[in-house]
Amino acid sequence: MSGEALFEHRFWLQILGDHARFIFNGLSSKEAEDVQKANRFIQWFDGLLAQSQVWDPIRI
Q1: Could you write out the DSSP letters of every residue in 12-29?
Q2: Which SUPFAM superfamilies match (predicted)?
């Protein structure tokens, strides 16, 4: 993966994580199912971003 592509990939993962946090923080506690979904998206995007930080071209 080129440096530019990796930068863009990380950029969008950060944006998606930020959006998931925005949605999570805007939900009422009464919306338990949506709160859980938003939390899963946060975890997912954060995990992918963390993986991209230790990206190893040999592993791919």
Answers
A1: HHHHHHHHHHHHHHHS-T
A2: Bacillus cereus metalloprotein-like
